[in-house]
Write a sequence for this structure.
């Protein structure tokens, strides 16, 4: 019984330490603002908006950027710019930044009319004949993802960023997806379909 109590105490202490502090994260986010915006809403299409993203997902990505840096890209997520940004971050720094950006309000995006037909069909229904799962299954009807399962919010992201990530999954340049799920889907998508989906999700809200 004493051993159980000690384990529970240690677990509680670890959980408390691992929790992010949004206010501390705000103070640490100054260097992130140039690429992701002061409040996490990026104005640079090539860079993702972080505002309102799930805390668990943000923390996972930061850790995997650092893993990519320390393993020379053999593990985690390999990105030269982010490798430099995460190099000096501690576990607590990453948790604080994740908590800060998760607490911010994401600005809604738009969907061009030309992308609605193809984008909506693939997002809502996929393509059973080609074994393409519907995006809605993991990312939800409004593109909000699910915090507990680690599926990210994609609503409001810029088409440029979404396209780059889908292409990276398709080409195997990004491989930190759960059970290879994104790679399996992306490998079956044409350039036209990737373009349509990338534009479509921006206006989901």
């Amino acid at each position: 019984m004493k051993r159980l109590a000690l384990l529970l105490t240690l677990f509680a202490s670890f959980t408390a330490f691992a929790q992010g502090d949004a206010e501390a994260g705000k103070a640490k986010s100054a260097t992130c603002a140039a690429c992701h915006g002061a409040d996490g809403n990026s104005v640079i299409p090539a860079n993702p908006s972080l505002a309102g993203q799930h805390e668990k997902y943000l923390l996972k990505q930061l850790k995997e950027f650092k893993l990519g840096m320390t393993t020379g890209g053999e593990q985690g997520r390999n990105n030269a710019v982010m490798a430099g940004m995460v190099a000096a971050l501690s576990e607590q720094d990453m948790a604080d930044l994740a908590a800060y950006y998760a607490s911010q309000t994401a600005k809604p995006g738009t969907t061009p009319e030309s992308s609605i037909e193809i984008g909506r069909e693939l997002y809502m229904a996929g393509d059973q004949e080609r074994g393409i799962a519907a995006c809605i299954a993991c990312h939800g009807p409004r593109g909000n993802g699910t915090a507990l399962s680690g599926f990210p919010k994609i609503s409001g992201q810029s088409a440029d960023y979404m396209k780059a990530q889908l292409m990276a999954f398709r080409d195997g340049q990004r491989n930190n997806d759960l059970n290879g799920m994104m790679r399996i889907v992306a490998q079956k998508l044409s350039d036209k379909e990737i373009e349509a989906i990338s534009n479509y999700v921006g206006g989901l809200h």
User: Anything to note?
Assistant: The chain has two domains: 22-103, 113-203. The CA atoms of residues 118 and 192 lie 9 Å apart. The first helix runs from residue 2 to 18. The chain has eleven helices and no strands.
